[in-house]
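[Q] Does anyone have a clean structure-token version of this?
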Amino acid sequence: GVVTPAVVGMAAAAGYDHLAVVRPPDIALLVLGDELLERGSARDGRVRDALGPMLPGWVAWAGGRCFPPVHVPDTLDDLLAELDDANADIVVTTGSTASGPADHLHTALRRLGARWVVDGVAVRPGHPMCLATMPDGRHVIGLPGNPLAAVSAVLTLLLPLVAAMRGETGADEARTEQAILDADVTSHPTQVRLVPVVRSRGDLVVHATPTLRDGPAMLRGLSLADGMAV
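[A] Here you go.
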């Protein structure tokens, strides 16, 4: 189980001076994209980075320890250098998971000899997400650049990986529950959809209401939600 403050106090009261524990994984965050602004509002054809401020909180929620975000220019050499230099158990990247001219993640991981574990998931939003393992054992999770798609990848790949590294395999499953969806949601013909919802608890069942505004680049629906319907 998790060593909470209460467990530490109980151990001390029982006379223990040391506890053998599995530490939370350290996570480096690389935010990719020349179009991203670190301060102020969107301007001059560039957009404000939302993932750098948002993802450390998600990492903490998942049980990891996040280093301060590092912004990386859209060049292969810069990405190779940052991936090679990141001193963390898990390296999380944002963007560059697709196959456009400025999307270098796949090329960089191949150059560094990474082994692919997951290269795309049949889920919307977030289907270009990926997971690879470096020759030295570090894991790399590629999140799509759109905010809702990135959170989809956090729930799909980062949460179970962190749980496993903390010795809590199956902990992510404890966060799921059955609910009745209170509004129709358009399904995808071949892939699973993740939809932000607000839950309410009746006497016998849990109800979930979609927040709408659930496009892959939208944060408003996610900011109002307290769960994701699968």
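[Q] Thanks! Anything notable?
[A] The chain has six helices and 15 strands.
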